UniProtKB/TrEMBL annotation:
This is L,D-transpeptidase. GO terms for biological process: cell wall organization; peptidoglycan-protein cross-linking; regulation of cell shape. The active site is at H171 (proton donor/acceptor), C187 (nucleophile). Residues 1-25 form the signal peptide.
Length: 221
């Protein structure tokens, strides 16, 4: 159930300066390749509510829930405390998904606009990521081609403030074991099969609200 505490009292949160796509990608996958990858990362006989080869806690499986009054259909709310992403639907409901959020202090709470969405995106670490963790990211400074092992996974929503790309993403992840935890360099991670289902329901131009994590709440109390 979506609570006022999570949507109002927790005020904005989540990602941080992570993942971007190269401005001039060298190759783009064909529709046939994208379909093949979709099949590769989607379990056989997939049922979002019950399929769980990833060993997730059952609460992180997709579930339709009742939304708070006054929330705008189409918008996304990320509860960084409970590790949930909510996509608000018409009729007072929302689809809820489990997510992983940024580790440590790599949070940028706020209100963002989804101005771009991509199936099987490219990925390039930001210069800040390379400077912070050169052993982890320097070898990828020229970018990573799309595919099931790409850090942005199967789908990505690109978060902007005005016309400025924040390099924050809501994206699929090749590391589903991280769902429910704090693992990323700033982005919100989802199971790849889950974000494949969510992707066509999300329009560009909608708002994504990123609420504060538990450490931020404790610091204010």
């Amino acid at each position: 159930m979506l609570t006022r505490r999570h949507f109002i009292m927790t005020s904005a949160a989540l990602f941080s300066p992570p993942i971007a796509g190269p401005l001039m990608a060298s190759t783009w996958p064909t529709e046939a390749q994208k379909a093949a990858w979709d099949a590769e990362v989607t379990p056989p006989n997939y049922d979002p509510a019950t399929t769980n080869p990833w060993g997730l806690h059952p609460r992180f499986l997709p579930q339709q829930v009742i939304a708070n009054d006054g929330l705008k259909p189409g918008d996304i709310h990320v509860d960084a405390v409970a590790r949930y992403l909510y996509h608000i639907e018409e009729g007072g409901t929302a689809m809820r998904y489990g997510v992983a959020i940024a580790r440590g202090n790599l949070y940028e709470p706020g209100t963002y606009t989804i101005r771009r969405k991509v199936r099987w995106p490219h990925w390039t670490p930001t210069q800040a990521m390379i400077a912070r963790d050169p052993e982890l990211y320097a070898e990828f400074e020229n970018g990573v081609e799309p595919g099931p092992t790409n850090p942005l996974g199967s789908r990505a929503f690109y978060l902007f403030v005005g016309n400025r790309d924040t390099y924050l993403r809501i994206h699929g992840s090749p590391h589903p074991e991280s769902i429910g935890g704090r693992a990323s360099s700033g982005c919100v991670r989802m199971v790849m099969a889950h974000i494949i289902s969510l992707y066509p329901q999300v329009d560009t131009g909608v708002t994504a609200y990123l609420y504060a994590p538990e450490d931020a709440i404790a610091a204010r109390s």
